[in-house]
Q: What sequence folds into this?
């Protein structure tokens, strides 16, 4: 957060009981603790959703660094947990399997095809992430993890029987489980560490030194909120400006130059609804694709309530007739059939489409089109 003298349009100025004053863009996401049934419930919410009495979770660094804080805490806990080190020792063998498998099969694309031939149904992006060692290991369940590890080890020429890779598969599953439980514990640890009179107790206390944690975070209770609404003045709000402003404050959503150009060329009239599409991407759909606590049904339902439809893909016929739905991004072809839809008319003032894809490497939603309807049939 920034201590400010003169707020800008769309700012939320927060005055705390501790006498501090902070300024956020209304859509900037901040960590806050709200009193309720669960006093330790910590959530990351847009600043415009804060209310008086909420407790901000702040760090010494400026800016929106909540995720960086969690990364620091996870690294600290991992390095100071003896059992984690033992699991990691076995899990590191997975990296050897995947490296040799890529080499022996002649590259990532060839390995992807070989895996499909062995019944391992994963997409090419996942195999790429494995090859770059960007993921802990394959699978979400113990049996699936063991199956995938064995197939990769077999293709690498490093295992002939599933039992040979059992310790590796079990270690990967243990680490995944550890990270899930650690994520829940960290929410409580952050709150406890930031409150001077609260003590960390129980199993979680052995993971993180309370004095170190207290140096990283502190809590301040909101006494008053002042919202400075957007006033266009001489600069009229446009579809392009909505997208441009959002990109400046978001670490979850980015847009290509193609998307920005499509926004410039659109005269869609309902700007509030287009802005709602960005909010849906920033919150519900990011959580959906990033593996958060929301399912596809719930994300679609929330969008529907706002008069927005989520479409997961374009029909094969349309895709085959038009190259607009497959684009080159970071040197590879990606499908941008996923989109949010407003209106069924082709009138550019009444119809809006937001096409995007999920980038698992950067863990971001990438917008490729933000404007009028793309072509649907061959002309």
A:
């Amino acid at each position: 957060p920034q201590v400010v003298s003169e707020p800008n349009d769309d700012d939320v100025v927060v005055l705390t009981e501790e006498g501090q004053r902070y300024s956020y863009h209304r859509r900037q996401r901040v960590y806050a603790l709200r009193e309720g049934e669960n006093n330790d419930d910590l959530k990351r919410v847009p600043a415009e959703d804060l209310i008086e009495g909420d407790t901000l979770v702040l760090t010494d660094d400026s800016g929106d660094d909540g995720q960086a804080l969690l990364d620091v805490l996870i690294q600290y806990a991992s390095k100071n947990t003896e059992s984690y080190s033992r699991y990691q020792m076995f899990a590191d063998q997975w990296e050897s399997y995947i490296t040799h498998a890529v080499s022996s099969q002649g590259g990532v694309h060839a390995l992807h095809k070989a895996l499909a031939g062995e019944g391992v149904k994963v997409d090419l992006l996942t195999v790429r992430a494995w090859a770059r060692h960007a993921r802990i290991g394959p699978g979400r369940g113990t049996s699936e993890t063991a199956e995938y590890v064995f197939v990769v080890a077999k293709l690498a020429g490093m295992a002939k029987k599933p039992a040979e890779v059992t310790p590796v598969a079990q270690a990967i599953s243990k680490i995944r489980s550890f990270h899930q439980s650690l994520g829940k514990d960290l929410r409580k640890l952050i709150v406890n560490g930031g409150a001077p009179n609260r003590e960390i107790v129980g199993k979680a206390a052995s993971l993180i030194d309370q004095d170190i944690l207290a140096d990283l975070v502190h809590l301040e209770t909101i006494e008053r909120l002042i919202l400075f609404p957007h006033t266009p003045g001489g600069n009229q709000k446009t579809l392009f400006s909505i997208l441009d402003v959002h990109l400046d404050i978001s670490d979850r959503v980015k847009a290509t130059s193609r998307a920005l150009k499509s926004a410039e060329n659109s005269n869609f009239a309902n700007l509030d609804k287009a802005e709602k599409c960005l909010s849906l991407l920033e919150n519900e759909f990011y959580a959906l694709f990033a593996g958060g606590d929301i399912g596809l049904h719930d994300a679609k339902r929330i969008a529907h309530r706002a008069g927005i439809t989520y479409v997961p893909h374009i029909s094969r016929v349309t895709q085959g007739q038009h190259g607009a739905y497959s684009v080159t991004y970071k040197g590879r072809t990606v499908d941008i059939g996923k989109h949010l839809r407003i209106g069924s008319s082709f009138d550019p003032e009444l119809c809006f489409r937001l096409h995007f894809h999920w980038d698992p490497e950067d863990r971001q939603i990438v917008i490729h089109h933000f404007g009028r309807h793309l072509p649907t049939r061959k002309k």
In short: Confidence is low (pLDDT under 50) at residues 1-7, 61-66.
